[in-house]
Amino acid sequence: MRTYEDITPLMKSLGHALYKYTVIDRKDFDFGVGVNLFPAEIHMLEAINCRNGVGVTELAEEFGVTKGAISQLINKLVKKELVVKEPASDHKSRVVIRTTPKGKTACQNHREFHREHNKLFTQYLEQLDDKSFNTVVELTNQLNLWMDNYLK
């Protein structure tokens, strides 16, 4: 059985990786369309791009935030000419958000960005045998539970 002292170096290493993630999560990137986007913006853009029009309520439910927070983010994307807001054809008081051609290009470049930057880690995961891969899956689940405990 491992002791707390045995596990502490691993916890510190995980902490360093999580810290690096938070640094990256606050950094903006240009995905080839002439405007910088923060991770929250490009991920929202991706969520919109995956649909042929989506409403604020659906996005708020998906992201687990308020409709007001979604509206603020959408307005930033509108100003950057990455999305447009249109009245819904079936319900005039409802607004539908769609990506523009510039937004579609940003999404495509974002996926390429991740394909390239994730290549080594993806290759590592691909070569794992089933037992090792399942261990990583379980570790990921446990990491999420660990972080959920801090959000309570």
From TrEMBL:
<dbReference type="InterPro" id="IPR036388">
    <property type="entry name" value="WH-like_DNA-bd_sf"/>
</dbReference>
<feature type="domain" description="HTH marR-type">
    <location>
        <begin position="4"/>
        <end position="145"/>
    </location>
</feature>
<keyword id="KW-0804">Transcription</keyword>
<keyword id="KW-0238">DNA-binding</keyword>
<dbReference type="GO" id="GO:0003700">
    <property type="term" value="F:DNA-binding transcription factor activity"/>
</dbReference>
<protein>
    <submittedName>
        <fullName>MarR family transcriptional regulator</fullName>
    </submittedName>
</protein>
<dbReference type="InterPro" id="IPR000835">
    <property type="entry name" value="HTH_MarR-typ"/>
</dbReference>
<dbReference type="InterPro" id="IPR036390">
    <property type="entry name" value="WH_DNA-bd_sf"/>
</dbReference>
<dbReference type="GO" id="GO:0003677">
    <property type="term" value="F:DNA binding"/>
</dbReference>
<dbReference type="Pfam" id="PF12802">
    <property type="entry name" value="MarR_2"/>
</dbReference>
<keyword id="KW-0805">Transcription regulation</keyword>
<dbReference type="InterPro" id="IPR052067">
    <property type="entry name" value="Metal_resp_HTH_trans_reg"/>
</dbReference>
<dbReference type="InterPro" id="IPR011991">
    <property type="entry name" value="ArsR-like_HTH"/>
</dbReference>
